[in-house]
């Protein structure tokens, strides 16, 4: 578990726990350096004349991580981060530019606080780990800009990374200022066989739904090297592979704690390589996002103001980076209220296989019945459910649908369009949650009817005001005990800690892409192995996994095997797991497969990555209680057709993968020779694609589980009798 090294040391005195360098500032007298909490103004000189330019580094170090603020260009400041002594982030710009002041140059350092310990101890109801204990160390550096106002830079170091954020404590409550540019950069040395794992930002409707790889033959199907640019920018999170002093490193960069006063940013499209380092910067949304509604793309700061965190995590081992909890460590705690009503679970999802199932109650009931027979807690009524009619053509209303579900022991979730002016999607219900009074009245009606949760869709903008509206939706939903998922929006940035009823966020290409006239299914097996090491690091992903029927798409069959699909609910965790295949595809499975789908957890206690690489494969283990669930995906793709439409393009060819053996080291899970393994894998020969076999293989003497997988195959194993970490 993350933070283990810190916990071992925590019984010692604080001065033995963390190594703090002595700060130094120019040649000014000692009175120029004030020690205190600069964020709240303590210890800050009363006169700007006591300040001085930053001339020597200020380092905050703990464990294997050290973050240093040092002099930058034009009298500004920069920062760098070392991991185990390796300069994984070289000196990189920091600071903000406001419309009324520039805090990237001509800065005066006025105070540096004493380092303070931060104990991030919290629980998660719907994530990859249930209990987090992450000690950290942080301090504030207070600068004054040329106009005399203060900018506070807070630097934090923790077990596997470092973070920084900004504050403007001098903005009056009735004053608003615009931030026109953020200078923060991450200058990561480009070494060895470097990789840049992220997808392109979509400038007008950002929702993290772009492919990581292009179509083509194997030699073209390579993830970009570090330093690759594009016109529209790249999406957070950003995962990098590099080498520093001939030592391999994996680096993960992201942002956390968006709290309504800043947009969700993306990585700058231009990635220059200077002095051997790829310099990744930050850009704001475009003004014409959200169809030009919801204000400017630039942040607007009103009153004393604090930015979100920017963080970097690094390790020589990709598995450590993939398992980090940095995004939630840097987020806010949940409000002290009763959250006992939050109940993660699985749901049937009829729209994915049959959008017309929402037209009538009779056509929707088979999916309610599916949830009842599979033991899933919920059924999701997606777009246009509010137009659902009975056999007489009369709109039935939410109360009737809830009652039909309740009679079968199933709870109901309903879909809601976020529009508003931000989208033109005609799906209903819409234009009902923009105004707060209308929204609360609507949520009150849903709660009174017995609805359990809402899927709020079609956000498609990273603007500050629209993110503030998402938070308002979450606040109001909590008041009426409605759980929430957010779709067609940016990736999670730690909100699942602050809002335990936020069970999942889309923010990526998921299972619904299997149902398309374009040959998206050709790309999904490979894509899934990349998601595990990039998108899934950020938080719960409402992916809609485990499509067991092959005919979801009208033009392209499902390319991954049934065993690959069965592994996806373990790999792509979400507090609401929505199963979108045909009822008969689930009900026709052997009893052990149905039982696995019935009991598969949607909230986890622990996660371990056991192997793989983006675009190739992944083997992951998640623990719930005393049981480990080990899942593997074989995504290796030799070629995909350059044509998108099998029904229209005569040159289309099916994708080609590679059969191979995936291995899992069960000793890493604390499993002894007597551990009980139940393996769900592909059948042999011609039956491999659609048939799941269930076996109880003995463990090898070294406790390695080896599974032969077919082209685009996979497996799941449940393992009991192991020791929890």
The major beta sheet can be summarized as: 10 strands, antiparallel
Distance between the termini: 7 Å
How much helix, percentage-wise, in residues?
A: 10-25%
Number of strands: 40
Class derived from helix and strand content: alpha+beta
Q: Can you give a write-up of this model?
A:
This protein is α+β, with helices and mostly antiparallel strands and 725 residues long. The protein is 16% helix and 32% strand. Strands 6, 7, 8, 9, 10, 13, 15, 16, 22 and 23 form a 10-stranded antiparallel beta sheet that branches. Helix 8 (436-449) packs parallel to helix 9 (464-479).
List the helices and strands and how they pair.
Layout: H1 4-9, H2 14-17, E1 58-62, E2 65-71, E3 77-83, E4 86-93, E5 96-98, E6 108-112, E7 116-123, E8 131-144, E9 150-158, E10 161-168, E11 176-182, E12 186-189, E13 195-197, E14 216-217, E15 238-244, E16 247-256, E17 266-267, E18 273-274, E19 277-280, E20 282-283, E21 300-302, E22 305-306, E23 309-315, H3 318-322, H4 326-329, E24 345-349, H5 350-353, H6 361-374, E25 378-381, H7 398-407, E26 411-417, H8 436-449, E27 453-457, H9 464-479, E28 483-486, H10 495-498, E29 502-505, H11 524-531, H12 535-538, H13 562-571, E30 576-579, H14 583-587, H15 591-599, E31 606-613, E32 617-624, E33 627-634, E34 637-640, E35 656-657, E36 660-665, E37 671-682, E38 692-695, E39 704-709, E40 714-722
Brief digest:
This protein has 725 residues and is α+β, with helices and mostly antiparallel strands. The N terminus is likely disordered. Keywords: Glycosidase, Hydrolase, Signal.
């Amino acid at each position: 578990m993350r933070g283990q090294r810190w916990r071992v040391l925590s019984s010692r005195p604080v001065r033995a726990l963390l190594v703090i360098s002595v700060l130094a500032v120019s040649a000014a007298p000692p009175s120029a350096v004030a020690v205190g909490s600069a964020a709240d103004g303590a210890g800050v000189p009363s006169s700007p004349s006591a300040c001085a330019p930053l001339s020597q580094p200020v380092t905050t170090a703990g464990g294997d991580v050290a973050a240093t603020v040092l002099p930058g260009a034009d009298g500004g400041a920069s920062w760098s981060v070392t991991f185990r002594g390796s300069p994984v982030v070289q000196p990189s710009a920091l600071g903000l530019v406001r419309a009324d002041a520039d805090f990237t140059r001509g800065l005066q350092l006025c105070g540096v606080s004493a380092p303070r310990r931060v104990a991030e101890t919290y629980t998660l109801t719907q994530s990859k780990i249930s209990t987090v204990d992450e000690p950290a160390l942080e301090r504030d550096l207070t600068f004054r800009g040329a106009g005399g106002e203060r900018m506070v830079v807070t630097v934090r170091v923790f077990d596997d990374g470092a973070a920084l954020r900004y504050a403007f404590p001098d903005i009056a409550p009735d004053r608003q200022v615009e931030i026109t540019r953020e200078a923060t950069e991450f200058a990561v040395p480009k070494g060895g066989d470097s990789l840049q794992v992220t997808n392109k930002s979509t400038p007008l409707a950002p929702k993290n739904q772009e492919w990581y790889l292009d179509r083509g033959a194997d030699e073209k199907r390579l993830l970009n090297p570090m330093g690759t640019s594009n016109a529209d920018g790249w999406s957070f999170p950003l995962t990098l592979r590099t080498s520093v002093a001939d030592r391999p490193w994996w680096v993960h960069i992201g942002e956390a704690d968006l709290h309504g006063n800043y947009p969700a940013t993306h990585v700058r499209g231009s990635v220059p390589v200077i002095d051997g380092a790829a310099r990744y910067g930050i850009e704001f949304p475009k003004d014409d996002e959200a169809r030009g509604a919801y204000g400017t793309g630039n942040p607007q700061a009103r009153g004393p103001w604090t930015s979100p965190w920017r963080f970097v995590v690094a390790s020589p081992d990709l598995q450590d980076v993939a398992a980090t909890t940095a995004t939630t460590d840097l987020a806010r705690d949940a409000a002290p209220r009763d959250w006992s009503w939050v109940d993660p679970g699985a749901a049937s999802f009829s729209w994915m296989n049959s959008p017309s199932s929402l037209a009538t109650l009779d056509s929707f009931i088979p999916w309610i019945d599916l949830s009842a027979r599979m033991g899933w807690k919920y059924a999701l009524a997606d777009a246009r459910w509010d137009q659902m009619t009975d056999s007489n053509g009369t709109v039935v209303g939410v109360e009737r649908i809830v009652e039909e579900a309740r009679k079968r022991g199933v709870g109901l979730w309903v879909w809601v369009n976020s529009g508003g002016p931000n989208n033109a999607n005609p799906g209903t219900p819409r234009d009902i949650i923009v105004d707060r009074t209308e929204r609360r009245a609507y949520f009150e009606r849903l709660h009174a009817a017995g609805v359990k949760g809402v899927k709020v869709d079609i956000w498609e903008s990273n603007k500050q005001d629209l993110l503030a509206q998402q938070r308002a939706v979450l606040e109001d939903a909590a008041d009426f005990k409605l759980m929430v998922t957010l779709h067609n929006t940016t990736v999670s940035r730690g909100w699942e800690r602050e809002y335990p009823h936020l069970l999942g966020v889309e923010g990526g290409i998921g299972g619904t892409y299997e149902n398309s006239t374009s040959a998206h299914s050709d790309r999904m097996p490979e894509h899934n192995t990349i998601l595990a090491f990039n998108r899934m690091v950020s938080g719960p992903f409402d992916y809609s996994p485990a499509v067991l029927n092959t005919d979801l798409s009208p033009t392209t069959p499902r390319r991954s095997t049934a065993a690959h699909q069965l592994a996806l609910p373990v790999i792509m965790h979400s507090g609401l797991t929505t199963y979108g295949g045909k009822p008969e595809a689930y009900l026709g499975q052997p009893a052990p497969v149905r039982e696995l789908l019935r009991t598969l957890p949607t909230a986890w206690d622990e996660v371990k990555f056991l192997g793989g690489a983006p675009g190739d494969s992944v083997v992951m283990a998640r623990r719930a209680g005393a049981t480990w669930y080990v899942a593997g995906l074989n995504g290796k793709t030799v070629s995909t057709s350059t044509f998108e439409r099998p029904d229209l393009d005569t040159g289309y060819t099916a994708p080609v993968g590679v059969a191979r053996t995936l291995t899992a080291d069960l000793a890493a899970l604390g499993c002894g020779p007597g551990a009980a393994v139940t393996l769900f894998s592909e059948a042999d020969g011609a039956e491999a694609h659609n048939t799941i076999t269930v076996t109880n293989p003995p463990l090898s003497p070294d406790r390695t589980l080896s599974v032969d997988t077919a082209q685009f195959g996979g497996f799941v194993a449940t393992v009991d009798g192991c020791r929890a970490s």
